[in-house]
Amino acid sequence: MISELKTSSLPFGTLPDGQEIWLYTLEIEGVIKASIMNLGATLTHLYVPDRLGNMADVVLGFDDLEGYLQKDYQDNYCYLGSTIGRVGGRTKGNQFTLNGKVYNLPLNKVTTHLHGGEAGWDRKVWSADFFHDEEGIGVTFSLSSPDGEGGYPGKIDVQVSYRISEDAKLQITYEAKTDAPTILNPTNHSYFNLSGDLTTDITDHVLQVNAARFLPIDEDSFADGLLQDVAGTAFDFQKPTLIGEALSKQEDIQLQRGNGFDHAFEVGQSEVDAILHDPKSGRTMECITSAPAIQIYTSNYVNGHFKGKNNIPYKHRAAICLETQGFPDAANREDLPSIKLNPEDKFWSQTTFKFTTSL
Ligand code: BGC
User: Family, per the entry (predicted)?
Assistant: First the structure.
């Protein structure tokens, strides 16, 4: 099948400081359509077909920039679809030591520096350029993050590319360089609900994660202790598992601490790292990543406090995030893959979300 590959850019709204925000859309008709705004290089819409060929939007977000700026959302900031940087998740004690120097990270939650803090990449206006290559069409977002921004050393130049292809893939590629030793652990924070009906929740979705171990957390959701075997726990998704059933294992202290799943799983042992399936629509999403971990987050703090697309209040468990990244707190740990970046290195990480349907 030869489908038409289309790109468009349209104004999406204006920030309080007068900066115009644009929405960049990539489309392969009947196969996949993705829109990304240049505020936070944020995935706002993602249309894929169900088993009957009906296209529907499978990510949480808002219809326009105003939605992202509304107070009810800002007060419960959940990073819907955002690019996260410099460092995803939480760093224990909100500090890290690099080459003998201690760096303190400013808090943006009550007790936590989360997802890069107040100066996070989700808050930045990125520049954007479309591209077209043998694999598909895409848009590259670029940003220069100055030395010291958000409490992190080194000036980082980063590019995040979103590409769609005829085989119904959305691929996100991160490339970065630093001018001084630093740490870097970016991700994307999309909330998926494959039903395409964003009034529903994902407890009836089936999840497989090819991970034999996960990283436990403490009462404040900071990584705590060594990687732990999933076998015999609520965290065993090595076979397709109903998310609602896994969430019902409330006796699991780790589930209690996270208010659901909010944990990093160690991946990289299989060709496909995770598979999410919605039995009703037949949509399946495979996740394949070069990153060593996936932070699985079941919308634990989404509670209908703000209205999303079509004025739909996003309810508890409305969606699931598969945040492909290095492990949280890797900056402070020798037992986890390093997230250090030196000037002589080039950072590269790629995640593919591939969509199929089944009967
Ligand atoms: C974090 C959660 C947080 C959520 C939204 C996840 O990646 O691990 O604890 O509530 O993002 O901010």
Answer: Belongs to the aldose epimerase family.
